[in-house]
Amino acid sequence: MNEIVERFEVTFNQIHQLLKELNGYPKNDNFVELLNRSKVKHSVIRTYFDQLKQYAKLRNAIVHERVDEDYYIATPHIDVVEQLEHIKQTLEQPPQALDFATRPVMFFTADTPLVKVIDAFERHRVSQFPIYTKDHQFLGLLTNGCVVRWLSRSVREESESLYDVMAEQLLDDEYHQNVQFLARNGTVFDLEERFENSLEENRKLKAVLITESGDKDGPPMGIVTTWDLIKIDRGSDDE
């Protein structure tokens, strides 16, 4: 029976260490406190939150309420130990961000006419498209908001015809804040961290583009939007 207890304690401590890493090794490294903080940021933690909280109570009973060296007031069932080991493995090897991305990525070149972009917004029900030069240099993320702002200005200023306007002309300074990049081997933790940081910095992150190395000028392999984050949580709830 002591072997089961030892497996439980070792795995619990490994999970505790992973939670410290996820939270940047804060001064208050209490397990439940770290669990509560991690739950806010990460869908994987939310999935196992209730179980881990219960396992923390069991761990405290094992460690702090031992009757003597060879007798524990509580001992975990083998199924509990195996589930805890499964959770640890999931936290060590979380799902890839690319698994939740929209693929393939629809994008346009800088000289794409505005009318074609507007048509794509309508036909594909997509709210943003990456814009590249012909040699694949990233120029910005063209959102439906960019289009609406440009149309509003053009009506007031009676500017050129829609047929004469190219995609690059609609990009504004917003794109510097509304898109970030992630390498293809990035995890769902890395993905959620980017959205969480942008929220804390009061920036309007619209999407994360996934490329081979995380280079902004690499061909887009997938795009993750705030709507995709909702789908991640829904998927977690189904487990």
What's this entry about, in short?
The protein is mainly alpha-helical.
Which key terms come to mind for this protein?
three-stranded mixed beta sheet, 2 domains, mainly alpha, 9 helices, CBS-domain, 239 residues, 51% helix, elongated, single chain
Principal-axes geometry comes out as elongated
- Lateral strand order in the biggest sheet: 1-2-3
Give the helices and strands as they follow along the chain: HHHHEHEEHHEHEEH
The CATH superfamily of the largest domain is identified as CBS-domain
Helix content estimate: 40-55%
SS summary, helix count = 9
Strand content: 5-15%
Overall average residue pLDDT: 88
Low-confidence regions: none
> Architecture of the largest domain, according to CATH?
Roll
Largest sheet: 3 strands, mixed
**What number of structural domains do the residues give?**
2
At the first level of CATH, the class of the largest domain is Alpha Beta
* Topology, number of strands: 6
Termini distance? 30 Å
The name CATH uses for the topology of the largest domain is: CBS-domain
Question: How does this structure look, described?
Answer:
The protein is mainly α and 239 residues long. It has 2 domains: 92 residues, no CATH class; 139 residues, Roll (CBS-domain). The protein is built from 9 helices and 6 strands. A hairpin with a 5-residue loop joins strand 2 and strand 3.
